[in-house]
Amino acid sequence: MTAKLAGFSLCYQKGISYYIPLITSESSNSENLFEEAPAYISKNKAIFLLEKLFFNPDVIVIMHNGKFDYEVLISNGLKENPTCTIYDTMIASWLLHPDRSSFSLEKLTEAKLFIETISFDSIVPKGKNFTDVPLETAVKYGSEDADFTWQLWQIFEEELKKNNLFSLFTDLEMPILPILAQMEMTGIHIEKSELAEYSKDLSSQIEKLQSEIYDLVGHEFNIASPKQLQEVLFIERGLETGKKTKTGYSTDTAVLEELAEKDPVPAKILEFRKLSKLLSTYVDALPSLTDKNGRIHTNFIQTGTATGRLSSRDPNLQNIPVRDENGRKIRKAFDAEKNKLLISADYSQIELVILAHLSKDKNLCNAFLSGNDVHKATAAMIFGVSPEEVQPEMRRTAKTINFGVIYGMSAFRLARQLGISRTMAKSFIDSYFATYSGVQDFINSTIEQAEKEGFVETINGRRRYIKAINSANKSEKAAAERIAINTPIQGSAADIVKKAMIKVHAELSEKFPEAKLLLQVHDELIVECPENQAEEVAKIMKTSMESVTQLSVPLKVSVEIGKRWGEFH
DNA sequence: TAGGTCACG
DNA sequence: ACGTACGTGACCTAG
Predict the structure, then answer these.
(1) What is the pTM of this model?
(2) If 0-12 CB within 10 Å is exposed, 13-18 middle and 19+ buried, where does residue A13 land?
(3) Footprint of strand B on the protein (CB under 7 A)
(4) What would the DSSP string read from start to end of A51-82?
């Protein structure tokens, strides 16, 4: 949002491209400069000319990592909501191979065009800017950037069509791109003073815990160092070791919870870690990232996952705490500006709904159709009781199994998760698959498809190749099978949420243009809008999201309206 | 930079 | 006999 425009490059046929540097001095805004210095044009002139491209519906603009360029152009005066079509070669390559390690123009040019590129670092010395390099060098670097993007598109267009990914590209991923840009640039407001207060509170709690730990242990040490902590727990205090890590014995939550029954230190460590995490990752970090209006801007990464989900970075706004009361205080610091409200709309159990749809399992579909608590319905089915007879413990078990199925569960993990024996876990699993035999069939056929074709697909044809699916190594093969099961479920959910974003954005732009999408958290959309529009905006969001796809089980969306995120009424 | 840990869906 | 649930990103330590 603060990047300046040095110049831009264009290409419309292979091997011929142009770099156009801009006059950098802010004072030189004369219209005549174009004639006086034909090799340069002013920034205003450049934006004016580029707008002709971006607002021509007959034009297709091909870019690499277009969201970035688009945002820079907007920060420098380009109007929003272009009418051209944007095609992004970075996204195209991601759709073709979503678990590639890099989608940089440099790496792709090397891999697909077999050309060595001029690297940015090789022409711009450390600490210098692009505008410091000689024009001749800038021309070389800038113009090949456009040329390679053009050439990559020629290849990707064919490949997308060949693999039936073209409509996913044009109808889903490309329309999402400018929406993400708008969300990022809008940002979300945080109430700094609340976090500042919470910071003091947390710091003193942490300090107190720290001295209590030192007292119990008899000396000071770095609690955050797993190495030193192992020494203290397993040698000095002689506690039993559990799981191993690559470098020693684990001190993670599960292990410490176990140890807490025999020793007072582990519980304090757990509390210390919990509060330190909140303080360093959120409470102290977020306020320093606000702009002059107190808003925070994340970067949504469209190529961030192998399943089709988005990821969020610098800062990650998709992992803001919510699960316990301490953490929720942080979420509540995210608020709407004056005279506005936040609306959160989230899909209920979207991944299980998709599992029901993909497997067409009669009992799982009925579990959804019969009521609104699918875990309870599952418990009733696998324990052979009526829904009214389901005890909380039974529901908890069913819920864990439901998640387990989505992740490709093992009896071992289920047993550990539920704190029961492996035999017992195995019998729950058997009973689950006896009830939901369609789910078992879905799992088997998905793995078979992966073995035969080498990839799995989502409802919309999004693809993920699974190289290890035919591995001779047993645990590698098992891990590949879990990916094969999970990807169509998680990925289809990602497809649906992206479709919903497009629909919600279109509806709101037309009916309530002041309402803005701010965040997407995998199954949840957050919108900010004027107070007096909130009820209607919420209705539009719910309706749009529920009607975006027709599955064999209806999608349900719950909406909440409030001044702060995580605190609704 | 890798490893451990932990925040989220 | 073997390893142990899917997908992320940030912070801290240690080398």
Answers:
(1) 0.95
(2) exposed
(3) A 226, 245-248, 250-253, 256, 270, 273-274, 277-278, 281, 318-324, 327, 490, 521-524
(4) HHHHT-TT-EEEESSHHHHHHHHHHTT--SS-
Q: Domain spanning A190-296 has what CATH number?
A: 1.20.1060.10
DSSP string, A147-162: HHHHHHHHHHHHHHHH
Query: Is strand C within 7 Å of residue A117 (CB)?
Result: no
CATH no., domain A311-348+494-567: 3.30.70.370
A316 touches strand C (CB under 7 A): yes
- Would you state the pLDDT for residue A191? 96
Q: Domain A7-187: what homologous superfamily? A: Ribonuclease H-like superfamily/Ribonuclease H (3.30.420.10)
Q: What is the dihedral of CA A540, A545, A550, A552, to 10 degrees?
A: -120
Distance A179 CA to B6 C1' (A): 31
Quick one: pLDDT at residue A31? 44
Q: Where are the domains of chain A?
A: 7-187, 190-296, 311-348+494-567, 351-486
In whole angstroms, C1 C1' to A253 CA is 28
Contact A485, A443 (CB under 8 A): yes
Nearest partner of A357 among A137, A552, A91, judged by Cα: A552
Neighbours of A30 (CB within 10 A): 13
Spatial distance from the CA of A198 to the C1' of C5 (Å): 35
Measured in angstroms, what separates residue A345's CA from nucleotide B7's C1'? 21
- Determine if strand C comes within 7 Å of the CB of A407: yes
Per-residue flag: A306 CB under 7 A of strand C: yes
Residue A135, both tokens: 């024009």
Answer whether any strand C atom is within 7 A of the Cβ of A225.
yes
> Which class in CATH covers the domain with range A351-486?
mainly alpha
Residue stretches of chain A with pLDDT short of 70:
24-39, 569
Give the whole-angstrom CA distance, residue A251 versus residue A70.
Answer: 46
Strands, sheet with A340-347, edge to edge from the N-terminal-most edge strand: A516-520, A524-530, A340-347, A557-562
